[in-house]
Amino acid sequence: MLKLKKLKTLIASAVLGAAVASPALAEESNAHIHHGPSSNVAWDIQHIRLVANGDAKRGQELNTKMFCATCHGEKGISAGRNWPHLAGQQANYIYKMLKDYQDKKRVDTDSSSIMVAVAQKLTDQDIADLAQYYASFPLPNNPKVKNFASPEMVKHIQTLLERGDGKRMIPPCLSCHGIKAEGGTTDMPALAGQTAAYFRKTMQDYKSGKRHNDIYARMRYIAEALTDEEIEAMAQYFANMNGNQ
Predict the structure, then answer these.
(1) Could you give the domains of the chain?
(2) HSE-up of residue 99 (Cα within 13 Å, Cβ side)
(3) How far is the C-alpha of 77 from the C-alpha of 152, rounded, in Å?
(4) What does the angle CA 125 – CA 64 – CA 25 come to, to the nearest 5 degrees?
(5) 105 to each of 50, 71, 166, 203, how far by Cα in Å?
(6) Cβ distance 109 to 47 under 8 Å?
């Protein structure tokens, strides 16, 4: 365990060092500057074919070569609660996220700066290969996460997932993310089995505007409409879901 911790520290230090060597990147990360579109990814036929034809076997090699496995695991199951599980994610979603890092559309945290440095070393084909590798696995089936929400709150969350809240302009979560939260069409991420800590942080970053690579600001609007209590209850709820069933 100690050796793994040291390895993570060394990798993070080396890659982060390369990232902050650029004053412009450091300034953008600290100031959360956001210019231009939320993402440069356009799902034209060229990109759709590129991702669909990604080589999962080569992606496996890249997962080791680029040290992705250090944080995200050999099979896309993260080594810690603060890093997202990638196993079973939509290939298009993984592709978009890595391109957003590459294009500096996500530079909101120190860990994002690490990902920017890594992504800029990848070609579009590399990214497509990694995307297909992670997509080749089933979604995480975590041990039950303790749910601190009241039965009333759990029922309320289920209603938000299935029906949304018209008064607050919140659409049903599952209408985009899949009926089992297994991921939706195009590039909608799977939420089932994701770590509660990562989901919570993601929603809070959208809520504050710290993260802004969502097309049409749709997740920022939804996160702003949700209460912190609802976000916490959702985090625990999704962590307990198994989108493979």
Answers:
(1) 2-135 (1.10.760.10), 151-239 (1.10.760.10)
(2) 22
(3) 31
(4) 65
(5) 21, 21, 30, 17
(6) no
**Residue-level pLDDT at 87:** 97
2-21 residue pLDDT tens:
344 444 444 444 444 433 33
pTM here? 0.84
Identity of the residue numbered 121: K
Cα distances from 71 to residues 77, 82, 175, 236, 237, in angstroms, run: 9, 9, 30, 21, 23
In contact, 184 and 177? CB cutoff 8 Å: yes
Q: Which of 77, 93, 104 is nearest to 128 (CA)?
A: 93
Which residues, 6+ apart, have CB-to-CB distance to 17 below 8 Å?
Answer: none
**First-to-last CA distance in the chain?**
32
The mean pLDDT value for 66-85 works out to 92
